[in-house]
Amino acid sequence: MVPALRYLGSVCGRARGIFPGGFSAAHTPASGKSRLLCQGGRRASTSSFDIVIIGGGIVGLASARALILRHPALSIGVLEKEKNLAVHQTGHNSGVIHSGIYYKPESLKAKLCVQGAALIYEYCNQKGISYKQCGKLIVAVEQEEIPRLQALYERGLQNGVQGLRLIQQEDIKKKEPYCRGLMAIDCPYTGIVDYRQVAFSFAKDFQEAGGSVLTNFEVEDIEMARESPSRSKDGMKYPIVIRNTKGEEVRCQYVVTCAGLYSDRISELSGCNPNPRIVPFRGDYLVLKPEKRYLVKGNIYPVPDSRFPFLGVHFTPRMDGNIWLGPNAILAFKREGYRPFDFSARDIMDIIIKSGLIKLVFQNFSYGVNEMYKACFLSATVKHLQKFIPEITISDVLRFRSKYIPISQLMKSLSITLKS
């Protein structure tokens, strides 16, 4: 039996209690039929692989790339339910390259964020992918925020974040001429990038190394085969059967699941524990009008409140030149619900019955009400933004929905870490 693979980026385990589970995918225009994008010189047939990765987002593609570069003799395939790659969370996020300042020192999150920032810059330089190391200011606008800001600065130093400094009002003005604040953390290592471009580059590396990508393959079932396929020379070499919603199947020895917003359901299909459960939250952004972009040069963030699992409303420059303002955090009624009225009865029932949402609501009731108020009234969000840049007015911003992820990943025992 092949040694078990550790799960990468998502819940995974043993399919039907016997093998680890998961598989991912790639991008191409397609009709309704599952489509193989690239087969890449493998001995295995197009329907059988040594390893299958479920999910063609940046985590699945990074996992596929890493596996095939480390184990070039293995046949590896990626399954994606959409016709294109990186459609959901990878293509619906703020595009920030975080430096690792927020996480608990010595934690895996802190280590991976610091190392990951260095690696993403290195990879982008190697591949010629555009990015901007525009930096970030975490700004205290009230006296009571300064102790929290100083504690965050110490945490960043412990985590090994490069170039951190505490700066006063005069230096804030030098970095961000229109920003007001009493004190700030200057984090020059923070940057921005288009993560879809990074994901597409991962997919290209994977395919050029011989990997296969299958799109329009929405996984419906994962089970252990009871017998070998008819006329198959492989016998039971590929005992895991992965079926899609059209009845097509792929066989493999091992599965890695990187299914994003569906990671709990795919885990359950494989016979694993579905916890932590996914509860989708949508983040709505405003956009600064083009003629007002001069007000913001880099990322401007508030001092986070440790009582809540969000970083707060902030100013985020984008690779296309836009400046995003937000997000709020509103419960979504569909896992991939990017618009306010997107709705899924199954997703709603899962939220109510299977998650810890009720406990979350009671613990953060006032915060939730405030978020809903800001979502309904533009003036409330603008008033908050004016704490940092007083020159911004309601006439300077546009509503911009459905471009941010349904922030997800609530979970077990309500230990929540949500990042924008």
TrEMBL record:
InterPro entries: FAD-dep_OxRdtase, FAD/NAD-bd_sf. Keywords: FAD, Flavoprotein, Oxidoreductase. It is an enzyme of class 1 (oxidoreductase). Residues 50-348 form the FAD dependent oxidoreductase domain. Its EC number is 1.1.99.2. Pfam families: DAO (PF01266). Its cofactor is FAD. It comes from the Eukaryota. GO terms for molecular function: (S)-2-hydroxyglutarate dehydrogenase activity. It catalyses: (S)-2-hydroxyglutarate + A = 2-oxoglutarate + AH2. Belongs to the L2HGDH family. This is L-2-hydroxyglutarate dehydrogenase, mitochondrial. It comes from Bos taurus. The lineage of its organism: Eukaryota, Metazoa, Chordata, Craniata, Vertebrata.
